[in-house]
Amino acid sequence: MAIDINLQQLGLEFGSGAAIGGIIGFAAKKVAKLIAVLVGLELALFKFLESRGILTVDWEQLTAGFVQASQDAAGGAPPSWLQTILSTLSVSAGFTGGFMLGFRRG
With contact defined as beta carbons under 8 Å apart, do 57 and 46 qualify? Predict the structure, then answer.
């Protein structure tokens, strides 16, 4: 199995992946903060309405949905194709590095 590696193409893929990852990481942190605030406000509103007798919330069922979603996400096994990994390694490594930097700076 002969692998032809073009270093210029590899660097271009890594750099573009890092730039895109940085932008997406920065935006993801801002969106995650906004979602956290909205979910917190929603839960506070549920608790307030429940204390007034306007709404009845089944808190056990609500948290069971979160547990089930996390179990479903962890259940799938990733494909083990060597060629797929090798073809996306440079872009994904750059993207991951850029995403982490953008998320940390955001």
Answer: yes
- By the 8 A CB rule, do 27 and 106 touch? yes
Whether the CB-CB separation of 87 and 4 falls below 8 Å is answered with no
User: How many C-beta atoms lie closer than 10 Å to residue 96's C-beta?
Assistant: 14
Q: What is the dihedral of CA 17, 36, 30, 65, to 10 degrees?
A: 20
- For the stretch 60-103, pLDDT in tens is 776 666 666 556 555 555 555 566 666 566 666 777 777 777 77
Can you tell me the distance from the alpha carbon of 83 to that of 98, in angstroms, rounded to the nearest whole number?
24
Q: Which residue has the tokens 């919330």?
A: 57
- For residue 32, give both structure tokens: 């995650």
Report the SS3 class of residue 53. Answer: coil
Tell me, yes or no, if the pTM score tops 0.85: no
